[in-house]
Structure formats: C-alpha cells, structure tokens
Amino acid sequence: MVTLVTTTKDIDSHFMEGALALARRGLGNVWPNPAVGCVIVNDGHIVGRGWTSPGGRPHAETQAIKRAGSSTKGATAYVTLEPCAHTGKTPPCADALVNAGIKRVVIAATDPDPRTAGKGMQKLKDAGIDVSHGVLENDAKYINAGFFNLINKQKPIFSLKVAASSDGCIASAPGVETNITGAIARNCGHMLRASHDAVLFGIGTLLTDDPEYTCRLPGMEKQTPVRALLDSQLRISLNAKILSTLDRNELWIFCGPNPDVNKVSTLEDMGALVIAADKVDNDGRPDLEWLAKYFGKKGITRVLVEAGATLNAAFMKAGLIDRIHWFEAPIKLGENSLKAFTHMDVAKENILGFQVLDKRTLGIDTYMVYEKRT
Hints:
- By secondary structure, this protein is of the alpha/beta class.
- It contains 11 helices and 16 strands.
- α3 packs parallel to α4 (119-126).
C-alpha cells in the first residue's frame, strides 16, 4: 500500500527531508559556515535544489534560486537554517528569496548567529512572505550542531571514533598496529572522516602506525579534513607519510612551548603548520580546553578524534566529547590487550552521560552512535 502525502504538515516534512539530505553534502567542507540545504517547490514539483558550496559559498538558497530560474515566482522554499540577513562576502539570502518572488519560506531551525537570529525571518515577513519555522528542527540542529556550538560556546563539537573488539580493545598490545573491523566498517569510518572539518590524533598513533589520515574512498580524496597532531615534544619523523600528503589538506602540529626552532622551520618549509600551545597541562602537553578554543577561533566546527587509548581517555575526562562512533568487531583480543581508554572502565553498553542514538550492522561488525546527554 502506498501512503499518500496529503496534509500541509506532511508535505512540509517531506520536502524538508530533501533539504536536510542536501545539507549533509556540505559537512566537512564548508566551515566556518553551516551546512545548509534548500529545496524550491512550485505547484508540487521541485524546481530548484541547492546546498552550501565548498568553502561556504555560494549559499544554498542562491544555488537553488539559480537552478529554479523563473519558476521561483510564487514558489515555496524549504531551508534547513534561517536565511542570513547580513551582508558579508555575499548579499543576504533573505533578500535573494524576496527578489526571486518566493511566496512562502519554510525553515527548520533559527540561525544562532546574532547577525541573523530572527532577523532573516523578519525580513521575509516584512516583504509579505509567509514564513513557517520549526519543521524537523531537531534534525537540522543535529546536522549543524558544530556550527551552533561554535556560535554559542566558541568551540567545535568533538566526536570520538573507536574501532574495538567485543571486549573493548583497540590493539593486541600497546604500540602494536592491529586491524580489527572489516572493510565495510572501515569505509564507513572514511565517510565519517570526510564529514568532519578536522581529524585529531596523537604522536603515539603516528609513531606506531604511520597513518596519513586521508579520505581514501574513490572519488572523495578531496574530502580529506585538516589533520591535527598533538605532539608536545615535536617527535614527528621528517619521513612520516603524512608529510607527503600535504597537497590533500593541511597538517596542524600542536606542540609544547619553546619547540626546537630548526625542526619547526623544517616542518613549515615542508608545508606543515606548527603551533606552540599557550597553555599546557602538568605533563607539558597542549591543554585540551585551550585546543578546543583554538579550533573555534579558526572556524572549525566539527573535529573527529581518531586517537589511541591515552588521548581517548583524556578527551573523555575533559568532558569535551559530544558524540561517540563505536565500531565493534565480533572478536576478542584478550585481557592483556590495549583497552579503548587508558585507566577508564568504559563499557559500550553504558557509557556514562551518553545515550544511544543509532545501532546498525555493517557486514560482520556493529556500529553504534552515542550522544552526550543534555
């Protein structure tokens, strides 16, 4: 039996779901802007689609208007975030919708940016446009949680990725590279990496595995995020593979104060950016709260932590982790293997302060998503 979409509420939700799907396309490549989707509908038919372009511009609304052409006259625009009301590098999207002859605008979430918050909707109303908001609002806020966090708390959201055995281990022994999950889970991990602005890891992982932290899915190589390395003593090898991939995206190396000036010079000549932390912990490592604020100042909205047990635990103890992506293989590595969190007893079934959002099967592996309780 086919269920017909008949009520205005059903219709609005239906087209907003399409706009949200478009918004997700921008995740990982539009910072410091939010990832926005827009669908323009006229006489029940989609006549224009748009989403935030890489680098944040053009915006979703102007893209959709351009594709719709003259069909914008009398149409309804579905937008996942309130159209901007301020003039920056581009004119306000609220003005663009007015000038395009849009009759109605349906908005998922209000923009938290004080330059727009409520002002975009008011501009539309003042022009005689019928405005509705709050349609699939929670979904829209979930997609742009990093942008909301950046505006409200001046730091990004942090997501922790863990690939573990069924007994909660990430390696057969400390310092030993161990492949745990299967190909489908690993590909999902690459998609997750591509949807974040930056991927963060520690020097221990770099010295053990010599990873590149690139996105290696066919056709998505340009989706490699900024790589952020915590290396308090600047121990990175000049032969590290990651230094040969700086054409894919930047490498930010965070170290302690007073680093070796010669090594800093060499690394920067190779294309890396070395940042000496203004604030360190008792062990001389960059303070994590300082690090979060640094990312915020740079406009980073979403950071994926792909690290070892020590850094995993440090972020959890600092209260910085907002989401956990747990990939689990149906194998056991044993009591002497390396747990996912150093000196922390964390069970996947009951991660304190987090709730399960999603659970699914990826081949022979299991994938669970947790979110911090508010």
